Amino acid sequence: MTARVGVVLFPGSNCEFDVMEAVTQLGGQAEICWHGDRTISGVDAVVIPGGFAHGDYLRPGAIARFSPVMDAVREHAAAGGPVLGICNGFQVLTEAGLLPGALQKNRGLKFLCTTVGLRVETSNSVLTGDVEVGSVLRVPINHFEGNYTCSPEVLAELRDQDRIVLRYVDNPNGSVDDIAGVVNEGRNVVGLMPHPERAISELLGSADGLSLLGSFIRSAASIPA
Which one of 16, 121, 145, 197 is the catalytic residue? Predict the structure, then answer.
């Protein structure tokens, strides 16, 4: 089965074609899902890409969460469908309540554009199902508000329930507990600040994003229609 992956396009998104290229390279079928539509057309998985949805007015993701397409994304997630939020997409998922916590301005109030080391903390998620725990991946970051924060109670839950998916080897932005990505209780909704779609070829500096996105696409292809 070829997985159909919908990539949600908001005004201000700028990584949608990067995601589509990665999905296609991995054998999936990528298609755009417009933010104003109330359906995601029966896709097997959904990616909310990076960028500046609605110009990041108010807060990153704060307006995007009210877009009509997000009701369809919520329904897809509630039914167990894979959902991935990358960078701005992670921010949208936290604003929409599909993931816990929030993203705030980086420590030092500096925009970060570099490649970081990510340690895989669990294989029990749609993003890391095929990746060995403890693996260190080289993946780019590109954000100003990527500092993950949550209450002590939520942090304890994330730790106890094995829901911290990725940690920074060398924390670049001040995220609590070095968190780079988390998963929901159902293990099917993942958000991360780094950009795996920008790490799909050694010509780009790293191909380590393929293992993450490959896991995501395979998880979508394995879900019965």
Answer: 197
Q: What is the DSSP letter of 2?
A: P
Q: What is the DSSP string of 59-109?
A: STTTTGGGSTHHHHHHHHHHTT--EEEETHHHHHHHHTTSSSSEEEPPTTS
197 is catalytic: yes
* Catalytic choice (35, 76, 143, 195): 195
The single residue of 15, 87, 143, 150 carrying the catalytic annotation is 87
User: Lowest-pLDDT range, 50-59, 111-120, 137-146, 151-160?
Assistant: 50-59
Q: For the CA atoms of the chain, what is the radius of gyration? A: 16
Return left, alpha or beta for 137; rule: phi > 0 is left, psi -120 to 50 is alpha, else beta.
beta
Give the domains, in start order, of the chain with CATH numbers. 4-221 (3.40.50.880)
Amino acid 32: pLDDT: 97
- The answer to whether 85 and 124 have CB atoms below 8 angstroms apart is no
Q: Known catalytic residue: 195?
A: yes
Model confidence pLDDT, tens digit, residues 40-79: 988 999 999 999 999 988 889 999 999 999 999 999 999 9
